[in-house]
Amino acid sequence: xxxxxxxxxxxxxxxxxxxxxxxxxxxxxxxxxxxxxxxxxxxxxxxxxxxxxxxxxxxxxxxxxxxxxxxxxxxxxxxxxxxxxxxxxxxxxxxxxxxxxxxxxxxxxxxxxxxxxxxxxxxxxxxxxxxxxxxxxxxxxxxxxxxxxxxxxxxxxxxxxxxxxxxxxxxxxxxxxxxxxxxxxxxxxxxxxxxxxxxxxxxxxxxxxxxxxxxxxxxxxxxxxxxxxxxxxxxxxxxxxxxxxxxxxxxxxxxxxxxxxxxxxxxxxxxxxxxxxxxxxxxxxxxxxxxxxxxxxxxxxxxxxxxxxxxxxxxxxxxxxxxxxxxxxxxxxxxxxxxxxxxxxxxxxxxxxxxxxxxxxxxxxxxxxxxxxxxxxxxxxxxxxxxxxxxxxxxxxxxxxxxxxxxxxxxxxxxxxxxxxxxxxxxxxxxxxxxxxxxxxxxxxxxxxxxxxxxxxxxxxxxxxxxxxxxxxxxxxxxxxxxxxxxxxxxxxxxxxxxxxxxxxxxxxxxxxxxxxxxxxxxxxxxxxxxxxxxxxxxxxxxxxxxxxxxxxxxxxxxxxxxxxxxxxxxxxxxxxxxxxxxxxxxxxxxxxxxxxxxxxxxxxxxxxxxxxxxxxxxxxxxxxxxxxxxxxxxxxxxxxxxxxxxxxxxxxxxxxxx
Length: 659
Fold this sequence. Notes:
Residues 541-657 form the Response regulatory domain. This protein has 659 residues and is α/β, with parallel strands linked by helices.
């Protein structure tokens, strides 16, 4: 039997994978969507094309195989039918003629006739390799007519019962193989043409879908970026584009509807944006106007406070000097009234000092001098400062420093803790206890001031650090303060890089606390030795410059009571002339900042520094505006703020006398 060829198998190299794009960047530009569309369209088309081509090619090859085999078998049967009598009779020439006649037909290249009796006839070339030949066989049987012959040999059989010989024909498969190859190549060519046509059609369809989607995507991206004037330009049916397939036209119509919806959305967004911008412009204009009004109000308030502070300090300073001068000579009947005057002046001085502190913080002229500070020294100083007040209020003070030290400014920290201790003494009530304790918390030290007073309700806790806010002083009793202490503490704490916290509840007392960086107690400098008692001021030569006659008179009286030599003038020009006099030597210059005729006290201070550098030049002023404080700080001027307590002035003059 002849082995039948296997079904057609397309070589791997001939199977298309990703068809090359006509435009080298088409797939890249199209993005993932176009690649997906190409994949979804080409893969099914490729599968169908390969399946159909394989089926048709396989059918063609089967037909060729069947025809080739049929021709070979037909020649073999024909030769067998023509050679039965000759083979039976042993007629070799006749058999040779039959074999040669079969060769002349051209279907076979070799014919062999043989039987078991030794008859063997062959015709055709024997040079062809056996690998190129295919053999076909047919048995030789006697035809039906040979039964009646009288010359049948003895023992012959009836026709068809037993073959008397065998015919073998050989066909050359070269042309057959060539035809099979042509069929295979034709099938592959048809498959490639089908694939290319499918790829081109799918690519065109994908681009017709991907390009409008890219425009829509760019429009959406522009809208997301805030470009609300962006619009889609996808054309629908009848939009002037080239004719397309029905599916493509349907897709384009749907994309056009999507683009139209996006354009409507963009128009709505643009209108909303314009309305929002208009509302924002109006709100901004209102906010700017209100901000300008607030800034103007704040500036007016600052100017008012500065002017009021200066105008109040002038007479208050003179009043304090006069009162201090009257107190030693007052009679027993006059002394209570003078003491009341002194108390009122002190309350006004405290209020003005608090306002000055607020102004200094607003002006940012306070620069903390950070250093290592022992809490034992701080608590000792605060204990001496508040001991008398606590004893008078029958309040017990407890100090627990635990040997800790912090990194902070000593003066500013003493101001914060001292204010908190003073408030705790005020609100503890009789037989109360105030605990000032420090404890370590990691790299920080927490300072707490606790009292067992009435506490602060939660509704007030958020506002107690506001200026002029007091919880239990609706009558504005000046003996309970002015509501500026905690506001100043909060601002100073912020200047030190911390904050003042609060824990309190009604009838459970209050705890104020702040945290500061811890320091090594070994790095704390020992306290300086106390200065010796100041010597009398007798003979101290003083020059007082002020345009207020009352202040000049009060200063003259007070300084003369201290046995000082005093010269007074209300003119800066006259003061500079006196300083330039070679016969006039002064130890102290007390000069007002704002003099008459727009004269500036700083010019007098500069002249004193230049003409008499050994003199103590002190600026005495009631001006506390931020600009003024910044200016004096930059010039490094010693400042006494009006009203000046006589004790403070005497202490300052004593330092000059000690030198």
